[in-house]
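Task: sequence design from structure.
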């Protein structure tokens, strides 16, 4: 058992797999190409099998090479978790923490959340990243961010998910736009009167589901890239839209001739905090979740 692969060799192998090129992998690892190639060759000799087929300037991972890469990633993750665990134990909530937020959350709480964390966690270097749900989950899986704040429901089976609060939806329209004061079924809205974000924004799906809006004729074909464009369409009395309480509390309607209508049903999205199940910073993340959870609850009340 003395002749085992080193962590460095496994890191080099993963880099080659990611880059599919020895030169780019060497650059990513900040070593010379000869150093990296030699390490991979030594790894193959240690394991007694070929991991990469090389031909001129091209390369291809063998079947066993693909399997070794998959297991190497887990070994690296576990090794990082050991380091994170000891750091977390010695200095809770200190050092760097990269937190991802989706745009329909970041737009309204990123700045106050950052300020709040600076006050509550003075030893924590918080870095915020804004991106779509799919991209944040990919970054979380590959270790590019430590945690993510997303709107749920969403496909998050790979990660630990802590529900923080409910963010209720309200229907929003121009004060002069004719709409019944009591609207029990949003599917009775006029044709093309409902304006929504682009489908890649999860809030669209959450609003449709939460408000039980199933009649496609109601939905305008225009898709806004952000909430401010969405509101500009509604402000010109073209129809209605749905906004979460978080946005309303942040003052998105301030100075606009708009009114809100609460759905008869309990329509909401859930705000959740996610982290990798393999992390060694579980103690840190639970502390962070408890504090930040209370802060976000207040933004949605």
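Answer:
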């Amino acid at each position: 058992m003395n002749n085992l692969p080193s962590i460095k060799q496994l890191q080099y192998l993963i880099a080659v797999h990611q880059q599919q090129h020895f030169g780019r992998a060497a650059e990513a690892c900040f070593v010379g190409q000869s150093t990296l190639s030699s390490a991979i060759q030594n790894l193959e000799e240690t394991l007694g099998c070929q991991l990469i087929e090389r031909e001129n300037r091209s390369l291809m991972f063998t079947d066993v090479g693909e399997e070794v890469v998959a297991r190497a990633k887990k070994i690296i993750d576990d090794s990082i978790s050991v380091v994170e665990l000891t750091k977390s134990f010695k200095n809770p909530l200190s050092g760097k923490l990269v937190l991802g937020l989706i745009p329909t959350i970041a737009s309204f709480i990123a700045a106050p959340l950052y300020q709040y964390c600076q006050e509550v966690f003075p030893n924590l270097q918080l870095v915020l990243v804004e991106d779509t749900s799919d991209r944040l989950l990919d970054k979380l899986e590959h270790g590019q961010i430590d945690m993510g704040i997303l709107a749920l429901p969403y496909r998050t089976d790979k990660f630990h998910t802590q529900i923080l609060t409910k963010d209720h939806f309200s229907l929003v329209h121009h004060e002069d736009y004719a709409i019944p004061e009591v609207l029990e079924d949003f599917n009775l809205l006029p044709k093309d009167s409902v304006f929504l974000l682009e489908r890649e924004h999860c809030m669209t799906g959450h609003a449709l589901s939460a408000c039980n809006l199933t009649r496609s004729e109601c939905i305008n074909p225009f898709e806004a890239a952000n909430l401010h464009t969405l509101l500009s369409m509604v402000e010109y009395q073209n129809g209605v839209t749905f906004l979460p309480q978080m946005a309303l509390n942040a003052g998105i309607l301030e100075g606009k001739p708009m009114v809100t209508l609460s759905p008869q049903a309990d329509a909401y999205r859930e705000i959740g905090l996610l982290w990798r199940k393999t992390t060694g910073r579980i103690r840190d993340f639970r502390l962070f979740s408890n504090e930040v959870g209370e802060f976000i609850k207040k933004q949605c009340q």
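DSSP finds ten helices and eleven strands in the chain.
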